[in-house]
Amino acid sequence: MNIVRILTNNAVVVDDIQNGEKIVCGKGIGYKKRIGDKVDESLINQVFCLQNSDMNMKFQELLQDIPLEEIRVADDIIQYARKKLDRELDDSIYVLLSDHIHMALARFLDGILIKNALLWDIKQFYREEFEVSCHGLDIIEEKLGVRFPEDEAGFIALHFANASMRGGSGDIHKITAIMQEILNIVKYTYRIDFDTESVYYYRFITHLKFFAQRMIMATTYDDDKDTELYQMVAEKYPNETRCIEKIMGFIKKKYNYTLSCDEKMYLTIHLVRVIGKNITA
After folding, report:
1. Tell me: the pLDDT tens digits for 213-239?
2. 142, 240, 246, 256 - which has most CB atoms within 10 Å?
3. Do the Cβ atoms of 178 and 217 come closer than 8 Å?
4. Closest CA relative to residue 182, chosen from 95, 250, 255, 85
5. How many whole angstroms from its chain centre is CA 46?
6. pTM of the predicted model, to two decimals?
7. Which domains does the chain have, with CATH numbers?
8. What confidence tens digit (pLDDT) does each residue in 153-166 have?
9. Residues 178, 183: Cα–Cα separation, whole Å
10. How far is 5 from 130, CA to CA, in rounded Å?
11. Taking a C-beta distance cutoff of 8 angstroms, is the pair 95, 59 a contact?
């Protein structure tokens, strides 16, 4: 492997014949080296192969500004998240999480602690990501000697939620707000509190999460052939249908988004389940 770019004394970009360009890290791996030199593979202790060219360049810039131990901590958390979440993560997570940890450390050392206004919502809507992020705080404490408050786990969870979206392009803050707005309409309509531990509630918010994502990305179901099926559902569940109509009116007015028949039907079905099985009156 030949060096094609030297980032720091401890990080270089190499041209791997089999895998293309990748970033390799190791103590002194770039020291007194020149472009074209062969890399000393015995010094390599970390390798990054980001497929997204834009994120790859941003990550290279970041490596020049952020201590390598912070990058390693971010990578440790990401690898743990991949196993626990068992899903693909967008390359943006390397840039966003590394930068977040670096900035959070700087704030912490300056005595600045930021409260996470979305913490409760994050715990409810992104439970798996939040659990992963809480373990991430343990990794940060173990490797960097700093114990962040729970608020930081919430911020980190949003990064993982965002990286789990298609192309990492979801606006998580807006998606979370839409989910909460819909839940508030349901709670006000039925004057109930949800049993947030119920599997029905989990399924409902999971459906809301992807519904809100489609709204943000301006995509919708194209198939409205099941109009008759929706009418059958509406006739069978008139109370839930009226609630869905309230949600439809709110979304149309605030976001100028029109629900398709399929979306109305799926929301109604999920609402029937969560209202019937997942409330503590």
Report:
1. 778 876 655 455 567 778 888 888 899
2. 240
3. no
4. 250
5. 24
6. 0.70
7. 1-49 (2.30.24.10), 52-168 (1.10.1790.10), 172-280 (1.10.1790.10)
8. 999 998 898 888 65
9. 9
10. 37
11. yes
